[in-house]
């Protein structure tokens, strides 16, 4: 274990980067999922078309390919745009952290779109009609009536999406983000102990995903507490 003595700080800070990446990607995933599910349930045919295209593309393309296309695609696009104003600029790229978080947000957001869509359909239509009868606007009905009830139905699959976000953070090392997989690769190159170093990475991920699983289970029990009392 003396081999690890010089790497604990690197693993610690790499884990902090992973947690920050997870939080940002989670926020983006929820936003994209809510927008996508709302569009899919819309009466507007154009919105439904784009929402369907979004879920088909991002659920049907490997995560690593989406990440690479997004990272290099945004670099090319930003460079082209900046050169319109300053031709002397040679290259502009999006920081790996934000490129990775946004790519994961789009990917998992596509899955959340379907989860939220199914959960919205599970909200009794009578609740929506009652909200309209009380004079609530469409926006108020959405945020005060539909979303609070939708979350209880979405929680089981939502927990799976949280695990997907966390595991997908391991992909971001390929574009140069210094998180724990990157640290594991660097430590392996120095110590020539790949099994030990990647086992540490695996245990860190397992600890985080176990915490997520337990937390979601607790949220499910809390969300369904009124149903147990009714029985």
UniProtKB/TrEMBL annotation:
Q: Which UniProt keywords apply?
A: Cell inner membrane, Cell membrane, Membrane, Transmembrane, Transmembrane helix, Transport
KW Chaperone (keyword) present:
no
Where is this protein localized, as stated in its record?
Answer: Cell inner membrane; Cell membrane
Xref: InterPro entries: AA_ABC_transptr_permease_3TM (IPR010065), ABC_transp_permease_HisMQ (IPR051613), MetI-like (IPR000515), MetI-like_sf (IPR035906)
Q: Which protein are we looking at?
A: Amino acid ABC transporter membrane protein 1 (PAAT family)
Q: What domain of life does the UniProt record list for this protein's source? A: Bacteria
State which residue ranges cross the membrane.
12-35, 56-82, 94-112, 170-189, 195-219
Cellular component GO terms, alphabetical: ATP-binding cassette (ABC) transporter complex
Q: Where is the ABC transmembrane type-1 domain?
A: 15-216
Per the record, membrane topology reads: Multi-pass membrane protein
Q: What family name appears in the similarity comment? A: Belongs to the binding-protein-dependent transport system permease family. HisMQ subfamily.
Q: Name one GO molecular function term.
A: transmembrane transporter activity
Principal location listed in the UniProt entry? membrane
